[in-house]
Design goal:
335 residues, mainly alpha, 81% helix
Length: 335
């Protein structure tokens, strides 16, 4: 009976932690969306005047503002925009004269595919390379490995993208630089996206490997590791079974930050590879002063960052229940 009560209490704490994190995510999203809407409403001036151009009169601008609902109070316009954000109605682009949601749907799918592939490469490469780096510490190949890792961190993604485009695109003709085939051709699109994702993943993987190595080497100095080794367990087994579990929470948090930064890094890489994603659309919309499009993209990226942080907290709490229990007792954020 007591065991069942303890399990029920732990389950209740876990459920409460998840609800608190989801509630914090909702509040963050609402705050970010309101700030973005208010900021772009202030700096954009009259969207009606921008649409009419220099030839429009003040009477035409006033009539178009009334038609677009811009004569209503800010909170009323924000409420309508927020409702439209979750239903796909984000207003009308000033440059393309079509719905922002319709305009961004295909772009967001491409960016999501690029970001997902980049993160998959980082996660798949970082863990084995981090373990290898920790095992090489102090060995004859440690200096060479460290130098190569530093080199990978120092090279920016756009430069790596240019090299990959030249070698695999122009020289080996594995894909056509600047001619993205579209997601309707999955095989060709995956090949094109792979090299773009690789250019994003290389420096972030090197950073994650360096962090993972530092966390693992710190854990290896703890008493429980020496106890496990004294009992005859091999170093590799101790790394996999004990050290890695304790080293994962900070790495998961770092990967969540990486997930958020992938989109920012992808803006430049999309330009290099000619990928028609949100990055290229954002750059073009800023140049055209197409504020409804810029506003929607900024909010989407901010939501992505907040969602990545919340996902990291939930995964860390799953790996180490002490994190959610400590937050429940102190009322503060998880460590």
């Amino acid at each position: 009976m007591r065991i069942h009560l303890i399990k029920a209490r732990e389950g209740g704490r876990a459920g409460g932690y998840v609800l608190r994190r989801l509630g914090a995510l909702l509040v963050t999203m609402l705050a970010v969306s309101f700030l973005a809407f208010g900021a772009f409403s202030a700096i954009s001036g009259s969207a009606a005047s921008l649409r009419l151009g220099t030839q429009g009169t003040s009477e035409q601008a006033a009539a178009l503002e009334a038609e677009m609902g811009l004569d209503r109070p800010l909170l009323a316009r924000y409420g309508s925009w927020l409702l439209g954000f979750f239903t796909g109605d984000l207003g009308t682009s000033l440059s393309y004269r079509q719905g922002v949601g319709e305009l961004l749907a295909g772009k967001a799918a491409v960016t999501l595919a690029l970001s997902g592939l980049s993160f998959a490469l980082i996660a798949a490469l970082s863990l084995p390379l981090g373990l290898l780096s920790a095992r090489l510490e102090g060995g004859p190949l440690d200096g060479l490995h460290t130098a190569f890792n530093q080199f990978c961190m120092a090279v920016p993604p756009f430069f790596t993208g240019i090299l990959l485009s030249y070698v695999f695109g122009i020289a080996l003709k594995l894909f056509t630089p600047g001619a993205f085939p579209g997601l309707d051709h999955p095989r060709q699109a995956a090949r094109h996206l792979f090299f773009a994702a690789l250019s994003i993943a290389i420096p972030r993987t090197a950073m994650t490997v360096r962090m993972l190595r530092g966390v693992i080497t710190s854990e290896l100095r703890r008493d429980y590791v020496r106890t496990a080794l004294s009992r005859g367990q091999g170093r590799g087994a101790v790394l996999r079974r004990h050290v890695l579990r304790n080293a994962l929470p900070p790495v998961v948090s770092f990967l969540a930050q990486t997930m958020a930064e992938i989109v920012a890094g992808g803006i430049v890489v999309e330009q290099v590879f000619g990928i028609p994603g949100l990055g290229r659309m954002l750059v073009a919309s800023i140049g055209n002063r197409d504020y409804p499009v810029v506003q929607a993209i900024v909010v989407m990226l901010a939501f992505w960052v907040a969602l990545a942080g919340t996902a990291a907290d939930l995964v860390n709490a799953r790996i180490d229940p002490r994190l959610r229990f400590s937050q429940a007792e102190t009322g503060g954020p998880a460590a």
